[in-house]
Amino acid sequence: MDTSENNVATIEPDQDNPIAVPPAEGPPMYLESDIDFIITLQKRGGDTLKKCMQCGTCSATCGLSPDDAPFPGKEMAWASWGLKEQLLNDPDVWLCYHCNDCSTRCPRGAKPADVLAVVRQESVINMAFPRFFARWVNQPQCIPLLLGIPVLLLTLALYSKDKLGDALGFSPPTGDGIIFSYSAMFPHWLLNMFFFFFGALTLVAIVIGGVRFWKILDRSVAYRLPGDRPRSLFRSILKVFGNIITHKDFSTCVASRSRNYSHMCVLFGFGALTVVTLWVITSGINPLAKGDFIYPFSFWSPWKVLANVGGIALLVGCFIMIWERGKENEQIGTGVYFDWAFLSALILVVASGFATEILHYIRLEPHRHIVYFIHLVFVFTLLMYLPYSKFAHMIYRTIAKVYAEYSGRKVS
Amino acid sequence: MSFKNVIQSRMSLIAVLIAVLIIVYPLGYSVADYISAGNAAGEKPFLERTAPEITQCVEDTIYMRYHHWELLHAIREDVVRYGKRSEVSLNNCRSCHTSREKFCNKCHDAVSMKPDCFGCHYYP
Predict the structure, then answer these.
(1) Between the CA atoms of B63, B67, B68 and B73, what dihedral angle is there, to the nearest 10 degrees?
(2) How far apart are CA A8 and CA A30, in angstroms?
């Protein structure tokens, strides 16, 4: 993409003033301060933002910030002025890893890391489709509704499972190997169809959010740097994925060092569980699994071991994260609702999953089915609210990092 | 650079390698298993009818497959808690399913189920 062909005014690089400011042309520009937005940011957890005196220590201390128009200094200024448009169209907030290096060095205790986290929440809501639902997901008072939706949908699906099964030609499971599994009560075909249907809806929301974010990146002044693209899109993607897997950017954090490893535990634990889930739900069409596929797995089956190890890793990672947040430190924030909601959802999914497994082994009937139902509800809330919760960082941060590499905003 | 320094500087990479190995291992195991088993459908479990004199069970096969243990629980409740001895007893089961080794244990072992009844009680 060549910037000179765009109609948008291109900015010549100014050696003395690298911060890219649009040239003053035409009538004078007035900044529109949105006081409601400031109040929203403060309510959501950025209550310290007005302490900022715009000294720029945060930008200077950040190990991830680029030299041109560095963050989080400019975001702190925008936040205290209430420049909603700038903040919501600022992809830089997604380059931040919330490592708190800026917050620990802030002379005023304004906690720039927390403010950026709240701005990320607001931009998730702004890019989400539908927006009103994203607003619900990020309000604590909507929790009953958010849990009620999957409870209702799952109950409906289970209530009509016999009629559905007859209509679609799914007979009760007759496999030789299925003996004492959950599939007698919750047939696999039903759960697969249920989660595929709502997964597809979620995928639509993810794609719409991703396209909206890509447009924001295309418009962003700071990302339209002069000169050649340093690398192709494909190589940028490869580079970013290598970076994410090895946690290279994470390991530059000083204030919250252990976040490197806790995030590794969570990411790889989740990866392991995803691999096992894919293996199980594709068992019907997987030639490797079909022959002697026995479900439930034996406790020492490699797949069961992987699932258990992954679940434990995920749980350990989550608890290290909580411990990190609970440490007494005035400078580091304890996180915002956005943060805690996602962390709690992860913990609830894994904990209810292990409870299901344990009840399966101690053969408590019907308790195990109730706990399994609760587990499914939590899985629904985790996966289907992905584009509206902090889970969306998986999409937006990846896209932002790819675009930063691709555009030369940040060449690491 | 000492060994300790090398370990410390490569800590992230080592952690990633270990994680990837753990995640890939079951896949490799399944592939190896598939190759070694050839195109055979694998070992088909489980149930071996050893003395099919009576063809009719108390319930149909599918019901028994999922709920036999509930029946056993119910019988145990009746006998132990309420002193009610019904017509159905393990002796009736035994007339078809003569061997625990060849019948019950095949499934139980495959899914790591360890029913604790027969640690004390006799079943041939």
Answers:
(1) -150
(2) 20
- Over residues B38-54, the pLDDT tens digits come to 555 445 555 656 556 66
User: How many residues make up chain A in this entry?
Assistant: 412
Tell whether the model's pLDDT for residue A3 goes beyond 60. Answer: no
Q: Residue A258 and residue A327: Cα distance in Å, rounded?
A: 12
Do A23 and A36 touch, CB atoms closer than 8 A? no
User: Measured between alpha carbons, how far is A287 from B95 in angstroms, rounded to an integer?
Assistant: 39
Residues of A in contact with B43 (CB under 8 A): 292
3-state secondary structure A300-357: CCHHHHHHHHHHHHHHHHHHHHHHHHHCCCCCCCCCCHHHHHHHHHHHHHHHHHHHHH
The model carries a pTM of 0.83
Judged by DSSP in three states, B95 sits in coil
State the virtual CA torsion across A156, A161, A166, A168 in degrees, nearest 10: 80
Residues 337-396 of A with CB under 8 A from B: 361, 363, 365
**Amino acid code (one letter) for A165:** G
In chain B, how long is the greatest CA-to-CA distance? Answer: 79
Q: What is the average pLDDT score of chain B?
A: 75
User: SS3 for A228?
Assistant: coil
Check if the beta carbon of residue A213 is closer than 8 Å to that of residue B101. no
Q: Residue A179's pLDDT is what?
A: 46
Residue A6 has pLDDT above 60, yes or no: no
- Buried residues in A134-170 as b, exposed as e (16+ CB within 10 A): bebbbeeeeeeebeebbeebbeebbeebeebeeeeeb
Say if the Cβ atoms of A180 and B41 lie within 8 Å: no
Hey, are the CB atoms on B111 and A292 less than 8 Å from each other? no
CB-defined contacts A:B, below 8 A: 105
Each residue's pLDDT tens digit, A45-58: 888 889 999 999 99
A248 interfacial to chain B (CB closer than 8 Å): yes
| Residues A383, A195 contacting (CB under 8 angstroms) | yes
